[in-house]
Structure formats: structure tokens, C-alpha cells
């Protein structure tokens, strides 16, 4: 599935829920689906700056594709980073950089977050883009 198709799936999944409380529940479930993130990898160099809660993002490059792994100490934030790495993990740096990340606006995520969480979302996107740019 290409990136545009994956974004469309997310948009479709979020459109099922009319209330934001239900969408938050969906985000929480996404966060629970993250694979285990080792405690030993929860180091300061993996922390995303600009997030109110702590978010760790690690990656490796395999066959030209970036594989992300992440964790957060806050349940909704964990869901947000899970959503992002679900979309962008396993993609080439070029694919990631070609994305305008508008999926977060299309599902209404950014406007329905508190200002501090919205800033954190922007920081997460910036970090994913930075990693992609550094691995071209």
C-alpha cells in the first residue's frame, strides 16, 4: 500500500467516529498496538524536543527504508506517535519527505488537541522529517 492509500485508510477510519471522545479512544487503542520499546533505549538523545509528555523515537534503516519505533509516557501522545509511525515506518526517506502530513488536518487531529499536544504533534512530524532528510 502506498503512502496516499495508507493516509486514506486513516482518514476513513477516523471518519467512522463522529465524537472526538471516540476518536481519542481510537488513538489510545493505536497506542496500545505499539511494539515494545526497550527501557534501555529511553535515552535523552531519543526524546523528541517540544513535546509536553516524553516521546522517544528511534529508527533503523533497512533496504533503504526507515523503520521507526517509539513510545510515550502519556496514553494519547502514545496514540499520536503510533498513528504517525504506522503511516511512515517502512517507507523510503523520499516517500516521507514527499508527504505534506496533511492527514493530521484531514482527520481534524491538530485542531482537536490542546495547544501543548498540538505543539508536540508538530515536533513529532518535524523529527520524522529530519530523520528522513538525514537518511537520503
Number of helices: 6
* Amount of beta strand: 5-15%
Strand order of the largest sheet: 1-2
- What Rg is obtained from the alpha carbons, in whole angstroms? 14 Å
If you average the pLDDT, what whole number results? 95
Subunit arrangement of the protein? single chain
Low-confidence stretches: none
Structural class designation: mainly alpha
| Biggest sheet descriptor | 2 strands, antiparallel
Helix proportion of residues, in percent?
40-55%
Task: State the distance separating the first and last CA atoms.
Answer: 21 Å
Global morphology = globular
Total strand segments: 2
How do the helices and strands follow one another from N- to C-terminus? HHEEHHHH
Report on the architecture of this protein.
The protein is mostly helical. It is 51% helix and 12% strand. It has six helices and two strands, in the order H-H-E-E-H-H-H-H. It has helices spanning 3-15, 20-32, 75-88, 93-98, 103-106, 115-134, and strands at 55-62, 65-72. Strands 1-2 form a two-stranded antiparallel ribbon. A hairpin with a 2-residue loop joins strand 1 (55-62) and strand 2. The longest helix has 20 residues, at 115-134. It starts with a helix and ends with a helix. The mean pLDDT is 95.
Secondary structure topology:
Blueprint: H1 3-15, H2 20-32, E1 55-62, E2 65-72, H3 75-88, H4 93-98, H5 103-106, H6 115-134
Antiparallel strand pairs: 1-2
Helix pairs in contact: 2-3, 3-6
Amino acid at each position: 500500500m502506498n503512502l496516499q492509500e495508507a493516509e486514506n485508510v486513516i482518514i476513513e477510519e477516523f471518519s467512522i467516529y463522529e465524537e472526538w471522545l471516540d476518536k481519542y479512544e481510537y488513538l489510545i487503542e493505536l497506542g496500545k498496538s505499539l511494539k515494545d520499546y526497550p527501557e534501555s533505549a529511553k535515552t535523552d538523545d531519543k526524546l523528541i524536543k517540544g513535546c509536553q509528555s516524553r516521546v522517544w523515537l528511534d529508527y533503523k534503516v533497512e533496504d533503504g527504508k526507515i523503520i521507526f519505533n517509539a513510545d510515550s509516557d502519556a496514553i494519547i501522545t502514545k496514540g499520536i506517535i503510533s498513528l504517525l509511525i504506522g503511516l511512515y515506518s517502512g517507507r523510503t526517506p523520499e516517500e516521507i519527505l514527499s508527504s505534506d502530513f496533511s492527514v493530521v488536518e484531514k482527520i481534524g487531529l491538530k485542531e482537536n488537541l490542546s495547544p501543548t499536544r498540538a505543539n508536540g504533534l508538530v515536533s513529532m512530524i518535524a523529527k520524522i522529517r529530519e530523520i528522513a532528510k538525514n537518511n537520503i
